[in-house]
Design a protein that fits this description.
Shape of chain B: globular
Strand order of the largest sheet of chain B: 1-3-4-5-6-9-10-11
Strand content of chain B: 15-25%
Structural class of chain A: alpha/beta
Distance between the termini of chain B: 15 Å
Number of strands of chain A: 13
Shape of chain A: globular
Number of strands of chain B: 11
CATH superfamily of chain A: Class I glutamine amidotransferase (GATase) domain
CATH class of chain A: Alpha Beta
CATH architecture of chain B: Alpha-Beta Barrel
Distance between the termini of chain A: 10 Å
Number of helices of chain B: 10
Number of domains of chain A: 1
CATH topology of chain B: TIM Barrel
Helix content of chain B: 25-40%
Oligomer: heterodimer
Number of domains of chain B: 1
Largest interface: A-B, 37 and 32 residues
């Protein structure tokens, strides 16, 4: 079963709506034990990485998420769900994150409006099934003030320009994460979910 | 490059769109879900719902609208009108809204912005400001009005915008009361003054009559997004035509 993690914040409903629209069944859960039997896990999110980590820690999700990813099972992080995969964030005075992708979460540089809010292009810097049927430089909807900066260039699958060029899509084995919100990005966004679920070999029900 | 957003605004009363619409091919032009779907298909970048339901007992109707729209329209939704507390905000966000806009309640209690930003993140707290130009002022100045433009506050719009962002608003929805409804263009001077003063995105609202007006708000007014109601609802311009025009004039625009 596709399992969406509910840690008390985030835009769960939009994510659930998108997956339902594609014809898949899903389960929203606040129980860490449910990850063990999940066929794919989605970690959505809005807000701040530090607050999200505090919620995940309090609810006991940290180890189950790390284990799920270590077992190389299909995992999709969205927005804050990308940022918390890194080692740590400088937001809110600094906070440790899940540390499954070595790297830091940094503030977008000054000079442009913050948050980076609206539709911006994703440059596909490597070919990957998550981009199947999606043209290079397609626009997706972003809203964030911080960005994940992985140490290993080979995990960067997509990049976006906003003052700097930052990593907007991470891939590593069965782990995929996007800084943008596919559930708010129209038909190309739905395609991202569909590609992920096909990549995870999930059947429509 | 970040594209400029084109945002249709729907006034919703008791669950129905109230500003008349002339989409003859819609079964029910007053149905916010049908209209939202049409704008989604046309390529709108975002939608704003302004709830103008007068009676508190009917306030639940907009929640139902947001729930139904978010099931089939996969773009950002902002809901405003009558939100007083963080519980009100939570209900909208849980129904599927991505952002909530507050106006009167934030002027009366700016801490609402801080509480909302702490609970949900500043990216989903929009400060809506209705501003009216102060006549006979030595320099250009604008006053904040609340209660649907009925009550002057004596507060300077520029100072309020800066303060509201400091309190936690992540975006400004700026309406010129002088320009609103006249279709003679946005108040460019106001838009530019606020946009240059705050570090967050500004949506220009009020006064759109031609596509040149939208262009001016984005370029001369330095707005990050433009909101319009009647030019879209009455079919004067489609979203597609609007985007084509702006793109030809060199504005970064998304085509889906």
């Amino acid at each position: 079963m596709i399992t969406v993690i509910d840690y008390g914040a985030g835009n769960l409903r939009s994510v659930a709506n998108a997956i339902t629209r594609l014809g898949y069944q899903l389960k929203v859960t606040n129980r860490p034990g449910d990850l063990a039997g999940a066929s794919a896990v989605i970690l959505p999110g809005v807000g701040a990485a530090g607050d999200t980590m505090l919620s995940l820690e309090r609810m006991g999700f940290v180890d189950p998420i790390r284990r799920f990813i270590a077992e190389d099972r299909p995992f999709l992080g969205v927005c804050i769900g990308l940022q918390v995969l890194l080692t740590g964030t400088e937001e809110g005075g600094g906070h440790q994150c899940l540390d499954v992708i070595p790297g830091q979460v940094k503030k977008l540089p000054p000079g442009l409006k913050i948050p980076h809010m609206g539709w911006n292009q994703v440059k596909q810097v490597q070919s990957h099934p998550i981009f199947k049927g999606i043209p290079d430089e397609t626009n997706f909807y972003f809203v964030h003030s911080y960005y994940g900066s992985p140490e290993a260039p080979e995990v960067v699958a997509g990049e976006t320009e906003y003052g700097i060029s930052f990593c907007s899509v991470i891939v590593r084995d069965n782990l995929i994460a996007t800084q943008f919100h596919p559930e708010k990005s129209g038909e190309p966004g739905l395609k991202i979910y569909d590609n992920f679920l096909k990549f995870a070999s999930i059947e429509r029900e | 490059m970040l594209t400029k957003r084109i945002i249709p605004c729907l006034d919703v009363k008791d669950g129905q769109v109230v500003k008349g619409t002339s989409f003859i091919h819609l079964r029910n032009a007053g149905d916010p879900v049908e209209l939202a779907r049409l704008y989604y298909q046309q390529g709108a970048d975002e939608l704003v719902f302004l709830d103008i339901t007068a009676t508190p007992e009917k306030r639940g109707t907009v929640i139902d609208v947001v729930e139904r729209v978010s099931r089939e329209v996969f773009m950002p939704l902002t809901v405003g009108g009558g939100l007083r507390t963080t519980s009100d905000m939570r209900r909208m966000l849980q129904a599927g809204a991505d952002k909530v806009s507050v106006n009167t309640a934030a002027v009366l209690n700016p801490d609402l912005l801080r509480e909302g930003a702490d609970k949900f993140g500043s990216q989903c707290i929009v400060i809506a400001i209705d501003a009216k130009r102060i006549v006979n002022s030595p320099g250009p100045r604008w006053e904040v009005y609340i209660s649907s433009g009925q009550r002057p506050t004596g507060i300077d719009a520029l100072e309020w915008a800066i303060k509201a962002v400091e309190y936690g608003a992540g975006e400004v929805l700026l309406t010129s009361m002088d320009a609103d409804g006249h279709k003679a263009g946005y108040d460019i001077e106001l838009t530019r003054a606020i946009s240059e003063a705050v570090p967050v995105p500004v949506i220009a609202s009020g006064g759109a009559g031609t596509l040149e007006d939208l262009y001016q708000a984005l370029v001369a007014g330095k707005a990050d997004a433009v909101l319009a109601a009647s030019i879209f609802h009455y079919g004067t311009y489609s979203i597609g035509e609007t985007k084509q025009y702006l793109a030809e004039r060199g504005i970064p625009i998304r085509f889906s």
